[in-house]
Amino acid sequence: MKAITFVTQKGGSGKSTLCISLAVAAREAGHTVCILEMDRQATISDWLDHRTEEGPEVAQIDATQLEAVMERLRESAYDYVFIDTPGVDSAGTLAAIRAADLCIIPCRPTPADLRAFKPTLAAIYRLEKKFAFVLNQTPPRSYRIRDAADGLAVLGILPDVNIVARTDHQDAIGLGQGVTEFNPKGQAAGEVRRLWSWIERRMQAGRTARRTVKHAEAA
Ligand SMILES: Nc1ncnc2c1ncn2[C@@H]1O[C@H](COP(=O)(O)OP(=O)(O)OP(=O)(O)O)[C@@H](O)[C@H]1O
Ligand SMILES: [Mg+2]
């Protein structure tokens, strides 16, 4: 069982949206997945209420429960546990980073988002966790993407796919679906599938934040 934590203090950057659609994409790729929701906003539980398709299982937990729940899940048949965290720093955020095999930091190509993840990144470095940024809600084409990608690539790892701002993401969540279910042939679905296969490969790679911190210090 591998744990993937979606984390950044910046609200609205796409943690829950990516957590949901990647969980669905991972299931479609043949994996068993459950989601731990640590955000009282309950975006994912709300999504589940509208869902008619099967899986993934979702459990709402708080920081005090995480360790025990992870202990049980390690004995379970799940291939992946996805952990969705709130957009504010909390005891739960740190616990969720600690539990992760990989942290995903969604980031919009805006100055505010590019500044806001710094405390998250500091915690990830401290705990020597593997991580990757994901540029989310990007325009289809803009100098902003290149600038943001260059900056993020210096600090850490960036997938070879960005997630463009597309209404498919919003409509899918509203219907209790992932984008790959909502519009399987759409561009949003294609990007999420590519992102999932990149994440799968990244999970196999050995590089940790300890090595990438040197790049951050040099930057
Ligand atoms: N790629 C995308 N294209 C279009 N809309 C998006 C995309 N990603 C996220 N959104 C929309 O942006 C809003 C915020 O996304 P989401 O709730 O996933 O962010 P979050 O990081 O979980 O926020 P919070 O920190 O408040 O939990 C939602 O309305 C969602 O539908
Ligand atoms: Mg959320």
Automatic annotation (TrEMBL):
<dbReference type="Pfam" id="PF01656">
    <property type="entry name" value="CbiA"/>
</dbReference>
<feature type="domain" description="CobQ/CobB/MinD/ParA nucleotide binding">
    <location>
        <begin position="4"/>
        <end position="167"/>
    </location>
</feature>
<dbReference type="InterPro" id="IPR027417">
    <property type="entry name" value="P-loop_NTPase"/>
</dbReference>
<dbReference type="InterPro" id="IPR002586">
    <property type="entry name" value="CobQ/CobB/MinD/ParA_Nub-bd_dom"/>
</dbReference>
<protein>
    <recommendedName>
        <fullName>CobQ/CobB/MinD/ParA nucleotide binding domain-containing protein</fullName>
    </recommendedName>
</protein>
<dbReference type="InterPro" id="IPR050678">
    <property type="entry name" value="DNA_Partitioning_ATPase"/>
</dbReference>
